[in-house]
Amino acid sequence: MPDPVARLNGLALVAPRITPVLDPQFRPAVLTNRAFRALARAAGHPVPVSLVLEQADGSRSGFHTEVLPADHPEAAGDFAYVERLLKFLLWSRGGYKIYFAGPRSIGEALQRYYRETPTGMFDANVMGDRVYEQPFEVVVTRAEELPKERASAAPLGRHLDGCRIGFDLGGSDRKVAAVVDGEVVFSEEIAWNPVPQKDPQYHVDGIQDSLTRAAGHLPRVDAIGGSAAGIYVNNRVKIASLFRGIPPDVFKSRVRDLFLEVSRAWPGVPFDVVNDGEVTALAGSMAMSENAVLGVAMGTSQAAGYVTPEGNITTWLNELAFVPVDYHPAAARDEWSGDIGCGALYFSQQCVGRLLAPAGIEVDAAMPLPEKLNHVQVLMAAGDARARKIYETIGTYLGYTMAHYADFYDYRYLLLLGRVTTGTGGDVILAGARAVLEAEFPELAGRVRFHTPGEKEKRHGQAIAAASLPSR
């Protein structure tokens, strides 16, 4: 039932049956969306709304829903419902041109939102200028004039022949492995601190150092594949948290083509870099010999990737760190985009950090997030009830968000990994998510399976998958 108190810009929010122990104001996006759609259908005259998102390569992805007629008592929530929905679509699927067919007042309000508000302008700038390098726009049109959807999917990786190097760049460490015909012959993890660095040479030197170390264990290098948090198109950096410390002018002049620069040091060697979430999902798919995999990694931020039921990837971005999962107006605010309730603040080290105070755990505010997580893990291993509440809260978040994802992704397996999920805390997260699914979404509980990688898969799966990206 809708919460009589909590609303988001006129949209009535729904309280969950299972309340996160450290976050009683949490209002799951999935419950509000489903309640709103049910209300629209019950109104007798729901108004159809269609959205088509176009990418620079001509791919188009559509989504269809309904809103309330303008004279309905709850019609004030129409815009918030559509705007939050479009936010999810933008960051999961991507697009620089949005075709909107529905009430003109909502379409024009969306145009103003992306033109005039800080959060809307952030999304428009990233999708338009930085990702697709095209002007961002919302085109208000009629349903019969919408362009046809045009999906694009392709096989990803799974090339295991020859002598390959795979690397993964995280916010606190970089990993590399040397792989011969699918078998890891060398692997290494090195701590680094890329996010605050202002000189991209730091990143170049670190990456080349890892590649050189791995190459020393191979008779030759046939291919190099890598993964990193962010958005990459044809090995070009579009947006990535690893480079947040780089000034904008230096980003444009040096970072955008940084991996092309790195690859030139390996002439004639095929070189591919993709989002780490995609490689995570690929690694899980390869390990399980299954498809329809949604991978979620809870690390420095949240990474995600998707392998379709056919075993391919799409041109979708799958940047779930930015999608809204909590609609409460006082939800946690992302420091980068300025938006509220976004995934990175619920499924990452950032989440652990913000839940410390509600859990009653005192640490130095200046302590880096990896150290805060390590502190919580030590407490959890010692049986500390306060630490357990953090993991229980994340588990509840995950259960409701899995159902939210299921409204947009056709997946049968949820691959869960990342430092936040290591140790006994990961078991608590899984138990909490299962409890939510069984209580609120029994149909999903019976359809989706969890997969958490074993130690060998954790150590080598990502590197093998990354190394398998280039074809020879």
What do these coordinates show?
The structure is a single chain. The protein is an alpha/beta fold and 472 residues long. The chain contains 14 helices and 19 strands. The protein has helices at 29-42, 78-92, 104-116, 118-132, 201-215, 248-255, 258-264, 276-288, 349-359, 369-381, 385-406, 424-440, 442-445, 455-467; strands at residues 2-8, 11-14, 47-54, 60-67, 97-101, 137-141, 153-155, 163-169, 173-180, 183-191, 223-228, 231-233, 236-239, 271-275, 293-298, 302-307, 312-314, 413-417, 449-451. Strand 15 (293-298) and strand 16 form a beta hairpin. Helix 8 packs across helix 14 and helix 9 crosses helix 10 (369-381). It is globular, with a radius of gyration of 22 Å. The relative contact order is 0.14. The mean pLDDT is 93.
